[in-house]
Write a structure and sequence with these properties.
This protein has helices spanning 13-21, 32-35, 47-58, 65-78, 80-85, 90-93, 129-140, 159-171, 181-195, 197-200, 214-224, 232-237, 239-242, 249-256, 261-267, 283-292, 307-318, 339-350, 373-377, 395-401; strands spanning 109-115, 118-124, 147-149, 152-156, 178-179, 203-205, 208-210, 246-247, 273-277, 298-302, 327-329, 363-367, 384-388, 407-411, 419-420, 423-424, 426-427. With 428 residues, it is an alpha/beta fold.
């Protein structure tokens, strides 16, 4: 801030900027002519930018060359008449500066640097809305280890960040980023992998599983058999579980051609947790989709308050293609609760649903508030999770099913209070 006697002839660009912004200290001047230089009106076309820069210079920060050019242009184009009314020669004033222009480091570079004790990939550039947009997108998808300091953004040294950061630099070639040779070497290796996926990326190429460990291959073939048009959609459905990162898109579409719309939507989901709209899709169709996908054994989590209703509803729909001997209900209700509990327990016994869980079991029913000990002690793991409703389950059940790659809720809408980990349900 400045306090000094001043004449109209001594006015400079910063003075004029503060005057139009209404924050000038000239109103306190001992010079009566200058003390009357008030009540200027900012033009709506540039009010925000002019006031912002005015606050900057008022705090004692010098203008950059770019700011000076802009302010000078706007003052002359929009404010000459107001200054003339106060007998101030604006053209003369804007040729003078209070402080020498502030030089900005205009360097653009990508380097490997130390940050907070970690070796990280750093990208540095002067402020640019266009580049910042891409950095923010990367930041929002990044790991927690992201830092920012002095126009420099720091990311973990991982392949995905090297790839995306160098691609940002390539997108803005006018900025002429200087890229450290070591980073360029890593990028070129990644580029080769991208251009030759069949040599490196695990996936199914022309119905052959490639770039895959033998132990994993044995599991895939044992569960689904050799990839073909009839089962390729099932492989694609399990792509995350199998860690298969490449599929021939056209082949997948051909494999799905004769499947229901609901099956297609489930297969093409973007996350593990989905909520199938009960207003749109009949329960029978959803259960048929689960059967199409061969998501057995299927763990069904039942609301203990409506156990009889939910279990009988599902069993009546699947009994034509799943034998009762392949079904196991691993909980009972306390008969003291009332007739419905007694009815449920009798139903389980009469239908022969009290089976031991083994390799032939296709459906396992449990209460959504407790994991039965047989499941905890054994090595049994479901291939799919199903629940009527999207209400929150107990923490131990959530932990048990959190690693699953297909969790289906059946409800009118996904509960806003329920998710597995940080993932909210994808509505289908």
């Amino acid at each position: 801030m400045h306090k000094r006697p001043i004449s109209k002839k001594a006015l400079n660009t910063e003075d004029c900027l503060e005057i139009v912004a209404g924050i000038s200290e000239l109103k306190y001047s001992a010079d009566p002519d200058l003390s009357k230089v008030q009540n200027f009106t900012l033009h709506e076309d540039n009010a925000n930018i002019m006031f912002s820069i005015a606050k900057q210079v008022f705090r004692g920060t010098a203008l950059t060359a770019k700011q000076y050019s802009l302010v000078k242009k706007l003052l002359v184009e929009y404010y000459v008449d107001q200054f003339s009314a106060h007998e101030i020669d604006l053209h003369e004033a804007v040729e003078k500066l209070r402080f020498p222009l502030r030089k900005i480091d205009g360097s653009h570079w990508i380097k490997i640097q130390e940050m907070k004790g970690e070796t990280m990939i750093a990208i540095r550039f002067p402020f640019s809305k266009k580049i910042i947009k891409h950095i923010e997108e990367l930041k929002n998808k990044s790991d927690k280890d992201y830092f920012y300091e002095k126009h420099t953004h720091y990311f973990p040294i991982k392949e995905k960040y090297i790839w995306k950061i160098v691609n940002i630099a390539n997108k803005f070639q006018d900025a002429k980023f200087e890229i450290q040779p070591e980073i360029l070497d890593l990028y070129k290796q990644l580029e080769f992998f991208v251009d030759h996926p069949s040599d490196y990326i695990p996936g199914i190429y022309n119905f052959k599983i490639k770039n895959y460990p033998q132990s994993g291959l044995d599991i895939c073939l044992d569960e689904l058999g050799e990839p073909n048009y009839k089962n390729l959609f099932q492989y694609f459905d399990r792509r995350k579980y199998y860690a298969l990162n490449h599929f021939d898109e056209q082949a997948v579409m051909e494999s799905l051609k004769d499947k229901s719309e609901l099956t297609k939507l489930i297969v093409q989901r973007t996350q593990d947790l989905v909520c199938v709209n009960s207003k749109t899709w009949p329960l029978e169709e959803l259960l048929r989709s689960i059967d199409d996908l061969d998501r057995y054994p299927l763990l069904v989590m039942v609301n203990p308050k409506d156990s009889y209703g939910e279990v009988t509803k599902i069993q009546n729909l699947v009994r034509n293609y799943i034998d009762n001997k392949q079904v196991s209900v691993l909980f009972r209700l306390d008969s003291k609760i009332g007739n419905e509990a007694i009815q449920f327990n009798q139903y389980v016994k009469e239908q022969g649903l009290n089976n031991i869980v083994d390799k032939n079991t296709k459906i396992v029913y449990i209460s959504n508030n407790k994991i039965p000990k047989p499941l905890l002690k054994g090595d049994w793991r479901p291939k799919g999770i199903f629940t009527i409703g999207s209400k929150k389950v107990s923490h131990n059940i959530e932990a048990f099913v959190a690693s699953q790659n297909l969790i289906i809720q059946y409800d009118e809408d996904a509960s806003p209070h329920y998710s597995y980990g940080t993932v909210r349900a994808e509505m289908i």
